[in-house]
Amino acid sequence: MAETRERWSSRSAFLFAVIGSAIGLGNVWRFPYITYENGGGAFLIPYLIALITAGIPLMILEYYVGHFTQSAPPTAFKKIWHRAEWAGWFAILLIFILSTYYCTIMGWSVNYLFHSFSLGWGNTAESVSSFFNNSILQLSESPSAFGGIRLPIVGGLALIWLFIYLSLFKGVETLGKIVYFTVIIPWLIIVVMVVRGLTLPGAMEGIKFYLTPDFSALLKPKVWLAAYGQIFFTLSLAMGTLIVYASYLHEKSDITVNAFLTSIANCLTSFVAGFAVFSTLGYLAQSLGVSVKDVTTSGIGLAFVTYPMAISLLPVAARFFAALFFLLLLTLGIDSAFSMTEPVVESIVDKWRLKKKYVLPVVCVFGFLIGLPFTTRAGLYWIDIADHFITNYGITTVGFLECIVIGYVLGAKKARTYINQVSEMQIGIWWDIFIKFLTPAFLGISLVFQFVNFIRKGYGGYPIWTTYIGMGFIVVLAIAAIILAKRKGAV
Ligand code: PHE
């Protein structure tokens, strides 16, 4: 078959697309609270080590797989080793489920943007948390009490899927133009929020809290696991996105410099966004007359409870800053969201030679429908559970498999020779050592560690059966991946 693969129109289109995928909700709410929970300033040390020992080597590996095979993950892995196709499908199924709840969180942001204009959440701790739990989510008392879907969230979700469809249907060249906006707009907003944050009274207390290291944290394995988990999530690794995006590169494009540029741009953005968030939390603490520690809630609560509250206490233009913050979440998230859909579509197109214009709408509609359980009154619990199992077990497993397939079956040296031929910067034998030994060893240990923890405690204080469902679900996805790999393709 003649080569008809789509191409990025320029190197910067590719760079912006990858940076847009990497920078997302993970940078603005996940990074700050993970940093805070894991030793504050000291966390930056394991974070940087994770970036160097797993993030960058794996990013180079994934660019290589896409660039060399010119295919989406399942076909790409099949070309490298005929038994490895299922690993590609496993990544694709994981990212598809991830996209369904990622878009639901964005659906909440749509609602919040709408309520920004009236600051609907009030300005007391009670009113803000009640707005999130009772008005927006109408959260039920347990994961088994679904209690019907929430129409405003479904509306937001539908809007996000429509955006994804519109961003992707014209193909990669148009996508390459959209990403300039979805990267530059949030960057500008972050700058505005950092300046506003740092000029608020109490800001320095927040920053101190963010950056003061607790070196004893470095002795805890949990902190190291958190650092590796965050690096995987934030760099969009082991999910197929980078392989697909790299497969649209021209044959002569660089790999290594691109990998360094994109990962550093992403991590710097996280670091800077941390200043916006923590300076504002410092202000909130001062306004309430409490310490920063007492206002910091973790996870999703940070973006939808603590931060909105801080904003509604701003002396001037609170509504403007509220709207700006949710616009930030939406513009940050949208290019991550469509970078989750593109690999799914492209994998199906690649294997069965179907037309993208038919596959895309079907994937979007299915993505929307599968997201509906997350819009029920028990949705928040299920998002939390799904996220835990997908990021901790799913992503790590795929990363581990990638190291084995490239490091051993194909041979790291062979891959490195190819990478060095096309790249502007040469990588040395250190890369082989990471891919063959250090990265898989670390990922293997972390998988075992988490599994032991899971057997002992279950996850997150939910009833133990939810842990079995989460774990069972990952196994079902792996089996589904094997079945998909066994099906005959068009070539
Ligand atoms: N990196 C994105 C974020 O930080 C999430 C993502 C994961 C996007 C996997 C694509 C693939 O929000």
Write a concise synopsis of the structure shown.
The protein has 491 residues and is an all-alpha fold.
Describe this entry's structure for a reader:
This protein has 19 helices and no strands. The N and C termini lie close together (9 Å). It is 76% helix and 0% strand. The model has no long low-confidence stretch (mean pLDDT 93). The protein has 491 residues and is mainly alpha-helical.
Features:
single chain; 491 residues; mainly alpha; Amino acid/polyamine transporter I; globular; binds phenylalanine
Explain the layout of strands and helices.
Elements: H1 11-22, H2 25-37, H3 44-69, H4 73-80, H5 85-116, H6 125-136, H7 151-168, H8 172-198, H9 203-211, H10 221-234, H11 241-247, H12 256-288, H13 292-295, H14 300-312, H15 318-352, H16 356-371, H17 379-422, H18 429-457, H19 464-486
Helix pairs in contact: 1-8, 1-11, 1-12, 1-15, 2-10, 2-12, 3-4, 3-10, 3-11, 3-12, 3-17, 3-18, 4-5, 5-7, 5-15, 5-16, 5-17, 5-19, 6-14, 7-15, 7-16, 8-12, 8-15, 9-12, 11-15, 12-14, 15-16, 17-18, 17-19
This protein binds phenylalanine (PHE).
Residues 21-22, 24-27, 95, 233-234, 236, 239, 241, 336, 339-340 line the site of phenylalanine (PHE).
Uncertain segments? none
CATH class: Mainly Alpha
Order of helices and strands: HHHHHHHHHHHHHHHHHHH
Unique ligands = phenylalanine
What kind of sheet is the major sheet?
none
**Which class do the helix and strand fractions yield?**
mainly alpha
Question: What is the architecture at the second tier of CATH?
Answer: Up-down Bundle
Query: What is the CA–CA distance across the termini?
Result: 9 Å
How many beta-strand runs? 0
Number of helices: 19
Tell me the β content.
Answer: under 5%
Whole-angstrom Rg:
22 Å
Number of domains: 1
Mean pLDDT: 93
Tell me the CATH topology: Amino acid/polyamine transporter I
Estimate percent helicity.
over 70%
Shape: globular
